[in-house]
Description:
This protein is an alpha/beta fold. The protein is built from 19 helices and 15 strands.
Amino acid sequence: xxxxSTRGNSPAKSFTEILLAGLAPDGGLYLPEAYPRVSRSxxxxxxxxxxxxxxxxxLEKFIDDIPAADLRALIxxxxxxxxxxxxxxxxxxxxxxxxxWLEPGLALLExxxxxxxxxxxxxxxxxxxxxxxxxxxxxxxxxxLGATSGDTGSSAEYAMRxxxxxxxxxxxxxxxxxxxxxxxxxxxxxxxxxxxxxxGVFDDCQDIVKSVSNDHAFKAAYxxxxxxxxxxxxxxxxxxxxxxxxxxxxxxxxxxNEQEVSFSVPSGNFGNxxxxxxxxxxxxxxxxxxxxxxxxxxxxxxxxxxxYRPRSNAETRQTSxxxxxxxxxxxxxxxxxxxxxxxxxxxxxxWAGIESGAPSGAAFDLSGGAHFPHIRDYGFVSGTSNHAxxxxxxRKVWAQYGIMVDTHTADGIKVGLELREPGIPLxxxxxxxxxxxxxxxxxxxxxxxxRPAGLMGIEQLPQRFVVMAADAPAIKRYIExxxx
Length: 484
């Protein structure tokens, strides 16, 4: 399996070569030269597998330069009850990702059983083990530079804390995450973790990560890697739970692969739903990929109109689903690469305009071209949700099913219910546990969300972080000083 850049001007590489790299040298994102296909007989064989066994079957199709025995051991060390069964109060399920039926035809795929109570633990825990494995083989060190709008930061830091040869420099928008999200990150005292609160929005943080990654001399000198979903390994690991959710929604071990299933996915940076797109391209019978945005509806606008117009910082709204307060969706480039027939020259031209720095005007319009009319062939539909919708959905799900959901999951349920097709089971992907957004839960339900005992009072712990301007050279100097 070789990996190519969406912009076509970087040589093809192996999985382990791109694992520690993040962006390709030409500024593009890595994807497989071709997506592996899964046969119906393989789907039949995979139905009864445990989560780690299924993860091995899926990931070995993308990773052929790590010995199978080593890959299996890494996966089995990652997906264990000790890691994924200690977070949800009162839940004694043996499943890593339990499927909970709300009513016939409507289910919630629980993805937040990991150490930071968010779906990003599903991939990040594996990424930490893959990084450590690769670094041990080479004797090298890695300085991870990441950006977070809420959950990526804590999941990355919990996955990398104490890892040999790894430092984490995590950028977050100052004052724009929930108190719980902020405390999860800033209360870590591990010496290899550095939290930087950037004066700006998430897109400023993400732009700095891309700027540093595109400074090839600095990147090489300081061994800069990424944990954001621009890293292909993150997306690959997330593909697994689409297969697991599909099998659970269609009868489990004794079910049939003839039934199509739709997935509703809250989306900000497009990484989570991009994994669903790839699962569908591999042959998983997915009917719809329902993309749910919040008030920052850049992606919904594209799927409705064909126009992709990232918003300026001033236009990016601060909302009660903060992990989706994103106006430049990094992983969207991967889908556009597929949409335009994997024409790297077209992708280069499109993103040259986006990255030109044109004041509030950088955009592209595919509505009149040959490709956009075929967008429904990829299963995508989209919708948006606002604060009032979130409160109403949280109340509805609690009143009807006795289940408390977080704000982002509420966005996904609201849009999913609006766009679902009759007769097609709908699986809504859970984003996080409601404990991470207690202020909004109190506003919606007038009660406190439950949280694991080990995270009680986390907001009162001492916090370690620095506040810095949204300035890439200053961030680079900060990294240099701590790597001497």
